[in-house]
Amino acid sequence: MNIFIVYAHPEPQSFNAAMKDTAAEVLTKAGQKVRVSDLVAMEFKAVSDANDFPRRADPERLVFSVEQRAAFESGLTSPDIAEEHEKIIWADHIIFQFPMWYYGLPAILKGWFDRVLSEGFAHAPPRWFDDGPMAGKRAMLSLTTNGKPSGYAADGRHGAMEVLVWPIHNALRFCGFDVLPPFVAYDVVRGDGERRRAILSAYADRLRGLAGDKPLVFHGLDDYDRDGRLKAGVEPRTAAQRMRLDKDGR
Description:
Elements: E1 2-7, H1 15-29, E2 33-38, H2 64-73, H3 79-90, E3 93-99, H4 107-116, E4 138-144, H5 161-164, H6 166-174, E5 178-179, E6 183-185, H7 193-208
Parallel strand pairs: 1-2, 1-3, 3-4, 4-5, 4-6
Helix pairs in contact: 1-7
């Protein structure tokens, strides 16, 4: 199995770095092939702008979806993006290793999503979701947070973790990936050495069983009507679609 780790943290001595190194070591010892993109070390460009498209399909108006697709189809994708495309094509499985900052992705990793999972390559409507170009590949989030698990419960101050990571999961599913349950390392900054070692051990165990992990459930395209709403009688089964207004309509 070919495994691509996309790593986003500025500190080489961070716990995220330890998780990235643990993954590379465990998976390599298990006979898997591993490649890593250390985005900060690579000085990966996070901002999508006109410099991504030196030969514009429309010189008058910058529309990213149009320019991304035109660049990809003409073989003119920016070299740094094309390099990441090659790694994705090679990979059977992608692991995203990052700290959750302000309830989302670090800016450099968000930029990777915006620029690398581009129109034409990772999604090409009407090829999306079940039929997306990444169908058959698997993806998993491995993330850290300084909050305790109780704070990320449905009644916690941060809200349910499955809801917080939903936009990332759905973006991956939009491209066609089978998305595995995330591995979340909680309370890592305040935790002592023993706790951190226990987290790394649990992560190593998870990685050893990676091939047997079952993907999260997403609704198939046939579950939706022409307006993109769940059809009558289809029971919501995902974190976002299970949300309901309270009795007062708030």
